[in-house]
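We were asked to recover a plausible sequence for a given structure. The inputs and outputs are reproduced exactly as logged, with field labels preserved.

PROBLEM: sequence recovery
POSITIONS: 738
GIVEN STRUCTURE:
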């Protein structure tokens, strides 16, 4: 366990004012929606809000797309895109933009969808225009004054704007910050960090970090991926076009290396969210990348959109709407939505699986980690992120580590990109928490791009997991506590089982700590659940509730007296005699039988106070879409199942089927019973003495679409020892400070 101390606080108004003024000025010159656009935006927002609250039965009507229909639509879109991509063979080049602000203003008239005339600059024309001069002046003054994360001293920084020619000649907006070449630096060559924008974000997203890192001796190039803001083309959701564009960016670094005093043999890719996923995909595709940083990124796109077979409807709507010109200043390709819909509909055709595989870093492990590369990767995700969830991040970490990559992992409190945001604005140590994230990123870059420049630091932990402290939330002034683990899984963390017995959870026994579930048997008692959205459990909304929980420490709570006993069940363990520390991925194993082939099991773990107040610790949902063996569409050649058993007849085994780690089918005959496993979000928290561990179970999770919302659905769960909750408990001997 470590604590990260904070330096003396300085109120961040000056840098906040600088950043706000700069960002507002650059944003306001952008496209302003007309009254019709505002109405369209309001309607779209209302539609997305409704989508998150519709019953599963209503919403899934749109998603019951047959494999053939979806494939036909997808292949039509992909065929068009592929034909276009196949005819594009322009060489990579670097062109300097004309005045960017004028082009943003011009976009008001041209429209976001008509980008062909935005970059009319001539090659060789000076790339020092209004926004780069303003940025350089303001951030230079901020650094001289030591505001926020910008420390006085260091190297002087020069800025340049340019257009990089991507695939098909699509011009990508880019901004580079690099150390000025004084007499002392004339012969120096600096390592390079290539940043890519997050979903919907523009070039100024990393401006403060570019200034900070360039002053520390890096060439920092940020580019805007195709289809966003001024960059031309369409968004294909981190597909081959985006990856090939990123390789063109690397070509530009090599071409301009002498101008920027760059060392193209030392390149790292990095980014937040969309940029983080592309950073790792680019590193896998191009061996010129020697390290990668993924912050709030993903390893498996199917796990994000439909993990455990449960469609993530809210985030599907968010991604779709924010990719539109009115909402997100983007141009989402028409080929993307059919694939999203197919994933959510449970379509596992080979074409859809291949589309997911291409965009999932976990499918490119051999390129990234094999062949002697062992690329260093820094992963950082957030515990309340309901898009790229923390359990998915730990599974991603294990996939990279198992393939041979050197992986550092951090899990913080907060929703999607919440831990990253203060540092991106330049006050990671001034507003609220003294976050170690960005200092850890810079240390990672130094260790892998500047070897030998300083005495080597001690090896970083394999996993740093922030302890949840409601009294010390993200936007409160406090020193966060992280548990450091030298390896993961850690011997300090042991799975402890709480078995369902009647309406209670039997506490773990010493001999049962790591014991497997007993074989299914005829249960002496069962707990019957009926489908119904009115469960009495509060899971919170998909965005606002976890944000308030992480930001202000207002925890998501339910009450035992409010539980609807017909559609929900609550199993409670005896009160804790001593504090219990839980750190890792909880899961629940249920011995169940269902009256219908399709159903959802939603599990929640609570810390229950003596008065019956239930504080939500973690939750998850598993959808079963069909009963029986895998259908033929799940058996393409050469694919293996979760245990590595070959399913196909020819071709090399590849551990990547859907891609996920839990099947959507339930290999149980009609009328029979079997095991259903529900994985829940990773957490690191304490259950205080006097509180009890509790497990909630229902057939409805409001944040995930249910495979079956028929009110006649009934599921029986065995509660005489065959069903159990498994918690990753940090033992007192493991050094946990309680």
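RECOVERED SEQUENCE:
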């Amino acid at each position: 366990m470590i604590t990260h101390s904070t330096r003396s606080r300085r109120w961040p108004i000056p840098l906040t004012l600088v950043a706000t003024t700069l960002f507002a000025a650059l944003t306001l010159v952008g496209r302003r929606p007309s009254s019709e656009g505002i109405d369209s935006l309001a309607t779209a927002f209302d539609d997305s809000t409704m989508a998150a609250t519709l019953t599963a039965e209503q919403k899934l009507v749109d998603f019951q797309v047959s494999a053939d229909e979806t494939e036909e639509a997808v292949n039509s879109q992909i065929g068009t895109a592929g034909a276009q991509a196949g005819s594009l063979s322009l060489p990579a080049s670097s062109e300097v933009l004309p005045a960017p602000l004028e082009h943003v203003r011009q976009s008001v008239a041209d429209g976001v969808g008509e980008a062909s005339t935005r970059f009319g600059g001539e090659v060789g024309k000076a790339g020092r225009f209004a926004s780069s001069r303003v940025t350089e002046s303001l951030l230079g003054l901020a650094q001289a004054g030591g505001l926020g994360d910008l420390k006085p001293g260091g190297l002087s920084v020069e800025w340049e704007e340019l257009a990089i020619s991507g695939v098909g000649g699509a011009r990508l907006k880019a901004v580079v910050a690099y150390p000025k070449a004084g007499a002392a630096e004339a012969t120096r060559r600096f390592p390079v960090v290539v940043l890519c924008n997050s979903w919907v974000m523009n070039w100024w997203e990393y401006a403060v970090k570019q200034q900070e890192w360039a002053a520390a001796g890096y060439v920092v190039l940020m580019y805007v991926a195709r289809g966003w803001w001024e960059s031309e083309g369409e968004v294909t959701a981190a597909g081959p076009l985006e990856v090939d564009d990123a390789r063109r960016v690397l070509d530009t670094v090599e071409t301009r290396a002498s101008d920027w005093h760059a060392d193209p043999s030392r390149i790292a890719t990095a980014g937040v969210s969309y940029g983080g996923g592309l950073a790792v995909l680019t590193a896998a595709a191009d061996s010129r990348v020697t390290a990668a940083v993924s912050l709030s990124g993903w390893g498996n796109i199917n796990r994000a959109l439909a993990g455990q077979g449960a469609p993530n409807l809210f985030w599907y709507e968010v991604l779709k709407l924010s990719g539109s010109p009115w909402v997100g200043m983007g141009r989402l390709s028409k080929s993307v939505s059919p694939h999203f819909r197919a994933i959510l509909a449970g379509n596992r055709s080979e074409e859809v699986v291949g589309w997911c595989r291409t965009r999932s870093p976990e499918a490119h492990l051999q390129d990234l980690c094999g062949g002697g590369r062992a690329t260093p990767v820094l992963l950082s995700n957030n515990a309340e992120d309901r898009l790229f969830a923390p359990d998915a991040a730990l599974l991603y970490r294990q996939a990279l580590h198992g393939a041979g990559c050197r992986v550092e992992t951090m899990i913080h409190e907060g929703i999607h990109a919440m831990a990253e945001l203060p540092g991106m604005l330049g006050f990671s140590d001034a507003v609220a928490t003294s976050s170690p994230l960005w200092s850890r990123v810079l240390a990672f870059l130094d260790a892998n791009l500047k070897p030998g420049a300083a005495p080597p630091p001690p090896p970083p932990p394999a996993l740093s997991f922030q302890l949840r402290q409601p009294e010390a939330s993200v936007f409160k002034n406090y020193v966060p506590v992280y548990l450091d683990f030298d390896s993961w899984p850690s011997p300090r963390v042991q799975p402890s089982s709480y078995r369902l017995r009647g309406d209670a959870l039997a506490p773990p026994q010493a001999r049962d700590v790591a014991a497997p579930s007993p074989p299914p048997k005829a249960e002496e008692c069962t707990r019957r659940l009926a489908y119904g959205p009115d469960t009495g459990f509060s899971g919170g909304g998909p965005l606002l509730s976890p944000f308030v929980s992480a930001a202000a420490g207002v925890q998501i709570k339910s009450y035992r007296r409010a539980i609807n006993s017909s559609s929900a069940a609550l199993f409670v363990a005896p009160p804790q005699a001593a504090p219990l520390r839980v750190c890792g991925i909880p899961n629940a194993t249920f011995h169940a039988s269902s009256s219908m082939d399709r159903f959802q099991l939603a599990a929640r773990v609570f810390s229950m106070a003596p008065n019956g107040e239930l504080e939500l610790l973690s939750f998850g949902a598993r959808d079963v879409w069909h009963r029986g063996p895998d259908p033929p569409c799940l058996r393409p050649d050469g694919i293996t199942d979760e245990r590595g058993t070959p399913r196909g007849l020819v071709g090399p085994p590849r551990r990547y089927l859907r891609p996920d780690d839990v099947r959507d089918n339930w290999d149980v005959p009609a009328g029979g019973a079997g095991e259903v496993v529900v994985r829940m979000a990773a957490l690191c928290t304490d259950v205080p003495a006097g509180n009890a561990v509790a497990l909630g179970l229902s057939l409805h999770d409001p944040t995930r679409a249910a495979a079956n919302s028929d009110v006649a659905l009934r599921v029986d769960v065995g509660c005489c020892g065959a069903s159990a909750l498994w918690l990753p408990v940090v033992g007192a001997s493991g050094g946990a400070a309680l």
